[in-house]
Amino acid sequence: MAEMNLADFSLLFQSKEAQKRHAEGAAAEIDDFTLEELGLAEILPLKSASLSEFITKDPDVIRYREEIFADLLENEEITATFGKLIPVLSDIMELRRLEVDSGDTADYLSGITEIELYISSIDVLYEGLCKDKKTYKSTALARLQEHIKTLVESEYYAELNERLEELTSRVRDIKSVTVGVNLDAQLRPVDAGVLAINPESFRSGDTLQKILRLNFKDDKYTCIAELVPFSKKQNENQKTALSLAFNAAIGDVYRHSLRSWKKIVQLYVLENTDFLLNLLPEFELLVRGTNLIRALKIKGGHVTIPEIRPAAERAFCAKGLYNPMVALKTDGTMVKNDLAFDQNAGIYVLTGPNRGGKSVLTCAVGLIQAMAQLGLPVPADEAVLSPVDRIFTHFPTGAEDTIEKGRLGEECARLSEIFADVTAESLVLLDETLSSTGSFEASYIAAEVLSGLSMAKCRTIFSTHLHELANEIDAINARTVPLGGTRIDTLVAGMEEGERSFRIVRAKPDGKSYARDIAAKYGLTYDNILNKIGQKAPEKEI
Fold first, then answer.
1. Does residue 156 fall inside a structural domain?
2. CB under 8 A, 24+ apart: contacts of 259-265
3. Domain C-terminal end among 295, 323, 341
4. 502 or 41: which carries more pLDDT confidence?
5. Is residue 45 packed enough to be buried (19+ CB in 10 Å), middle (13-18) or exposed (0-12)?
6. What does the alpha-carbon distance between residue 300 and residue 313 come to, in Å, rounded to a whole number?
7. What's phi and psi for 380, nearest 5 deg?
8. 277 and 370, same domain (yes or no)
9. Average pLDDT over residues 41-46
10. pTM score, whole prediction
11. Are residues 401 and 421 in the same domain?
């Protein structure tokens, strides 16, 4: 089985070299906190690993994963197969966690259980991937299919199953043991031992009748008297002592079997079980990721495989973009928007009414980026994306630092941390930043921050309540663009007849229009107020 060395096999990386590159710097530095703020950890939760471990900035790895997700979405039985496999592998992990190398029968049984679970795992994969002789488009699934087919159809695997049946029958069929006790002249126990291991359980009988008949030879499985140490009144220490004694005795009987079994486990099973256990987090990501995409489709959301461009291009163009978290919680109606970072705008200041969709769009941009770098289809009609090296979020928080620094101090400290690590290939998402201070102070700090982000050349969305900040954009561009900075533009969350449309358009904001629409909606115009308080509005002069 030397040719079946699967130690470096992966469904998410095309080669050992790709895995090495990921470990040494090709992984995007997007931490779990950021994924939680965006909401991805909620809609794509993993138990066996951190979601951030899988986010890559390697375009080739992304495309490799896109192929396997396409296969999974086209073949539901593969997702079902992986879904059956996950709890079996989790049981093996738990068994290993609880195992102790004691050398007794408990260790023997746990070894047998592990190999049974391993064979069950391989059988599940063979049934789901190989039996119908399907061909898969993705290299990853085709390789796994070939590995499993070769393994299951090998002579060694057949021999392993035979040995398993032989070895398990020696223990699984034990129903009782016959114990012999030597007595002295006063009928006191002198020593004891196991006389026989039986395939049947003993039965309780009519003790008095058996004694009167003195008929012990013809019915060896009928108990004529229970041993007192096994009574219900026995304490835990007594029970433990008896169990250890019996395990030791049975272990002596099966010592040779134990040794031969451990050799099989060490020579073959552990290595191949490790191969599957190493894939457990990958199976989970593939299943949960595929189920997420299917759930979006059920809700009526379109998904697309994004075109991946080199990181240096800093491409981001999404048409029909929507927030998957919102889509999963609605009745299927969702507002889609278009957004592109281009030569005329690498940074956007997004303004609009409260609850008008600013935060939803800001998170949607981060979500589509993270999902793409996991290899998933993304929630949009079309998308062209470059991988980012980091995603920075600056969302409202109740951080403990507010006690010592104050709310504004805490916000500024977090912004300063972003500038320590940001690069031209980063994505920065700021939502209601600097909302803890007055508009004059906030606008001054925001203008300084935007100037710095422009010079950092990172793609940015600055979602804000500071409508007057839009008046500073031309001045900021005049300050930074001649020095090579990224141009800043504005986005507006729209209102239509006093109602939030959740449409995001590239336009100059007009704070008064939002206030006028909202005031009219709630009857807070001057004329309406006068009517409510019973006064007549003065006639307008002609």
1. yes
2. 260/167, 261/108, 261/111, 261/112, 261/167, 262/111, 264/115, 264/160, 264/163, 265/111, 265/114, 265/115
3. 295
4. 41
5. exposed
6. 32
7. -165, 165
8. no
9. 95
10. 0.79
11. yes
In a domain, 373, yes or no: yes
Within this chain, do residues 325 and 290 fall inside the same structural domain, yes or no? no
DSSP 285-319: HHHHHHHHHHHHHHTT---B-PEE--GGG--EEEE
Q: What angle (nearest 5°) sits at the alpha carbon of residue 148, between those of residues 75 and 259?
A: 140
Task: Give tens-digit pLDDT for 215-233.
Answer: 555 566 666 666 655 555 6
460 and 512 in a single domain? The answer is: yes
Question: What is the model's pLDDT at position 525?
Answer: 66
Number of domains in the chain: 2
What is the extent of the structural domain holding 16?
2-26+54-170+257-295
Q: For position 399, what pLDDT does the model report?
A: 44
Q: How far apart are CA 167 and CA 258, in angstroms?
A: 9
The pair of structure tokens assigned to 94 is: 């738990």
Average pLDDT over residues 296-323: 95
Same domain? 344 vs 445 = yes
Distance, CA of 272 to CA of 253 (rounded, Å):
29
User: pLDDT of 325-359, one tens digit each?
Assistant: 999 988 767 789 999 999 899 999 998 776 668 88
Q: Of 542, 515, 183, which is closest to residue 353 (Cα–Cα)? A: 515
Q: Taking the CB of residue 23, how many other CB atoms lie within 10 A of it? A: 9
CA distance 64 to 69: 9
